[in-house]
Amino acid sequence: MITHQLILLFGLIIVGYIANKLKILDTSANQKISKFLINITIPATIIHSSIDQKNGNGDKIAIVFLVAISFYILIPILSKTISRLLKQEPTFELMLTYSNLGFMGIPIIEAIYGKDYVFYVTVFMMIFNISIFSMGILTLSRNQVGKKVSFRYFLNPGIISAMIAILIYLFRLHIQTDISNIISNIGSITTPLAMIVIGSTLGEIQIKTVFADVKLYLFALLKLIVYPVIVYIIVRFFISNQELIGIAVLLTALPTAGNLSMLSSEYGGNMVMVSKGICISTLLSVITIPLWIHFLT
């Protein structure tokens, strides 16, 4: 199943790449699709992740919330420190921090631990989205010379939808079936569109530069191996449940999030670097993720 997900991911990227080379997509189209994703389909995905979720073990859910909150406080600090030591731009630190939870995290966790643990991923996704749509935007906005960061950046669809998702889960709010289906179908557009835009962006650069940039191999080493090792060591001191440890480590070991490409386009980040990072981390994860799964199970 994991192999199939990776093949599908690369297949969608290739479609976008070909569409760009055939002049079906260009920079302008990429930017407009990115805005559509950021403001409509990704928020729909976030909200739908909490609709009609079965209530699992309350204590475990609370622990997952605490782990996710701690994760998205400590990991960004680590990424900022490493980025500064390596004299890299803000986009680099976000590439280290944010993983592809939705598209790859959910099917991997379901395949390894079962459907009962899928909601744990959505808990991470809730905190993930609050983080990426607040601190992520704030970090990327440093690249926009002369543009001050406004409080309105924190009142965006990503933050609002994440808060709605949390409220739906905490208060067991019932969403009418037709509305739920509409939200679900809108959200289902996210993955193919996001990956196609990434492929189209790659179509505007020389693909050989992805593998010629030594900096990207260092990034991949940190993202796919070093960070999961750090999380594994730390989490073991506070959690005894092996499934929760495994989930935290595997979610850390995933490639860079496709959302970051959309945010980079919208808020002035280095979209070329992000697209390269997503490409190389996804490619190498074909090797590293099975190794992590073998180690953890």
Question: Could you explain the architecture of this structure?
Answer:
The structure is a single chain. The model has no long low-confidence stretch (mean pLDDT 86). The radius of gyration is 18 Å and the shape is globular. With 297 residues, it is mainly α. The chain has 14 helices and no strands. The chain is 76% helix and 0% strand. It has helices spanning 2-21, 27-48, 58-85, 90-97, 101-113, 118-140, 157-170, 177-187, 190-202, 208-212, 214-235, 242-252, 259-267, 271-296.
The number of strands is 0
Pairing-aware structural class of the strands and helices? mainly alpha
**Global morphology:** globular
Q: Which regions have little confidence, pLDDT < 50, spanning 5+ residues?
A: none
Terminal CA distance reads 16 Å
Q: How is the biggest beta sheet arranged?
A: none
Give the count of helical stretches: 14
Beta-strand content estimate: under 5%
Q: Please state the CA-atom Rg, rounded to the nearest Å.
A: 18 Å
The chain-level mean pLDDT equals 86
Q: Helicity, in percent?
A: over 70%
Order of helices and strands: HHHHHHHHHHHHHH
